[in-house]
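Could you please review the protein record set out just below?
***
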Amino acid sequence: MRWVVLGFLFLLSVLNYTDKSVLGLAAEPIMTELNLSYDQFGLVGSSFFAAYAVGSIILGTLTYRFNSKFLLMMIATGWTISLASAYFVETLTHLILLRVVLGFFEGATLGFCLVHLARWFTSAQRGTAVAIMTSGTTVGTYLAAPLLVMGITNIGWQHTFAMLGVASFVWALFFFFMRDEPKQPLVEDVKSLASNKEVPFKYIFNVLINPYVLSILVVGFVSMWITTWVLTWAPTYLTQIVGLKPQSMGLIFAGMGIAGTVFAICAGKFTDFLFKKNKSLIKSYDRVLVTVLLVGAASYSMTTIVSSPVLACIFLGVGLIMNTSLLPLNAAIKTLIIPKNLVGSVTGISLAIASMAGIIGPWITGYLITLAGDDVRSGFNSGVLVIVSLYVVSAIVLVATRKLKITATEKEDESRAADERQMNLEVSVEQ
């Protein structure tokens, strides 16, 4: 049953990122139809992530009280409502409103999925499970591109938006018949993980200011920055700078998606293998994550140097493949270093912080392109160099804080255990 549940979460991730990427793929017809400039279209992308930040906090905290299954159904229904409203879009304001509603309901998706997944998979299985689940984001961003381009070209962007909304509603209907949790409780092998304990909600601030947790938030911010760049500007980059035709661009996206999905799942299995072998978060997930960041930085930087379209696609593809691994690695680490009853809430808050990248990232790239004037390539290259810098900084922060993570054997836990032992002793004496 757990693999069926994982399949549903994978499909939800596909829909989640298909909904995100459809705006970028429909950029040219939307900008033409609504007479939008680059700055205005960048504002539309930013508005989505502003609402995403609000939704991730407000909805993410609901996992502390409510069943994750029904929360997932709720947000899928919200996507349906927002996407179906595409038929009413006639101005920039209407388009922003559509993306704001969609962004609000999509904000808590990852948090809800992680909480639900942690109910079905142990920590030693979670690297692969999270990688499979989040590979849906790659499928939604890249593999669905040819179908979305075909739909946008043949039936129009409004119909394409609405069809995605119907798909979300169908998902919610089928998910209703799934079990909430496995019949037998999970048994964890590594007892020192913070995810094995529960703490009162009032301690959430203490969790958030932990240095290693903060470093993971930085990685999430960087991952969101490049993700929003891909969703908003990568299609335009491939067509206007690299020189690909729309259909070819869709196929290139699909190829990157296939490679990224395979790599992310293999990386997940590899980190699970390392974790089972050495029982160390640092020697498994952390080291792989740092390596991915450095390789990604090198690849993106090369796209600003090469002039060949083939090389540009190759280096951009390697960079995007590395980025597909950031989300599952980052998400898996969250489920291990955060007390299990706060995973949804902390993930929601961290996504809100990461969404700041989505708010300012698209606009900054659009501004740099506009600032470059006729040299559009230079504007795009400036935006990519910002990404390279963020990757390097996040790798440095991870290395500096990796030994400061939360464990299930900290002083407050020892003190609490001592109090419980004393209480039990007093009770036994009275008896």
Q: What stands out?
A: The mean pLDDT is 80.
